[in-house]
Design brief:
By secondary structure, this protein is an alpha/beta fold. It has nine helices and ten strands. A hairpin with a 2-residue loop joins β2 (about 25-30) and β3. Bound molecules: S-adenosyl-L-homocysteine. S-adenosyl-L-homocysteine binds near residues 79, 175, 195 and 223.
């Protein structure tokens, strides 16, 4: 396969099925308990996969995309819980950098630093992220959004004029469903916009292989008591559409 193949991954089927359905000339490969869909989106060669949930699953999937499929760039697309007060359900967060909030080898190393790598924050590709910000802004313009998602599906989440944010995403192997978890993270890492369970693992592997990457997260819940209900209904009705529209715009 040519070196300009892009790897696209999500954690769960609802994050990538909308993209897989659009693939042209698709071929299916099963490796290490994952299903990889190789094909084209317009002129762009891509491999699309869902990793399942958590940092280990995401890291193994990225390594396979890099070593077996020789992808030259990685885009992660999925949902996340909002942490910063400005970030609302239906907004999109594009990571400028990512941190593993559950890494703690203190007092040997500063909290959150990856031991023997000496790094805490992993930067995404700046230009690719900025281009994506513009593309997502146009998808979220309310008249455009109403063309692809029913108003009735947006109403229960009070999504009126969703926004795009650029900033720090925190990842770890926990689903946030209490205010206590949320406040604890806000106290320790006040710059964090949203929380999820894979992005910073993807970031670490891409950094180690020297491969550019981006992480795009739609906010499905507020990382508090209502998170599990909000998450479930958001991924059933909305996340698939956001994922499909964002990726289509990227390769239009
Ligand atoms: N319902 C699933 C579990 C979902 S875990 C099951 O039954 O197995 C939540 C997924 O969405 C993860 O992939 C994570 O990256 C993201 N996510 C969304 N909201 C989150 C939150 N509040 N806390 C942590 N991760 C969240």
């Amino acid at each position: 396969m040519s070196t300009d193949t892009i790897g696209i991954l999500g954690a769960i089927p609802q994050e990538v099925n909308g993209i897989i359905n659009q693939l042209i000339d698709s071929k299916v490969h099963t490796i290490g308990n994952r299903t990889y869909y190789e094909g084209k989106l317009g002129q762009q060669r891509v491999v699309v996969v869902y990793s399942r949930i958590g940092k280990v699953a995401a890291a193994a999937t990225v390594a396979t995309l890099l070593l077996e499929f020789r992808v030259s760039k990685i885009a992660f697309i999925g949902v996340a819980g909002g942490i910063h007060p400005d970030v609302k359900v239906g907004d999109v967060v594009i990571a400028t950098n990512l941190v593993q909030y559950d890494m703690d080898a203190s007092p040997l190393r500063p909290k959150f630093e990856i031991p023997l790598l000496g790094k805490t924050y992993f930067d995404t590709d700046e230009q690719w992220s900025k281009n994506t910000e513009k593309q997502v802004q146009s998808i979220l313009a309310i008249d455009n959004l109403h063309k692809v998602v029913n108003k009735e599906d947006l109403a229960p989440f009070s999504i009126e004029q969703p926004r795009v944010h650029m900033g720090t995403i925190a990842s770890g192997d926990q689903f946030f469903s209490t205010n206590e978890q949320k406040e604890n993270l806000q106290k320790q890492l006040p710059e964090v916009l949203c929380v999820e369970m894979e992005g910073a693992a993807v970031a670490q592997v891409c950094f180690e292989f020297g491969v550019p990457f981006i992480v795009i997260r739609t906010i499905s819940d507020n990382a508090n008591q209502e998170a599990s209900f909000s998450f479930q209904s958001f991924v059933e009705k909305i996340s698939l559409v956001y994922g499909r529209e964002i990726i289509n715009k990227m390769f239009a």
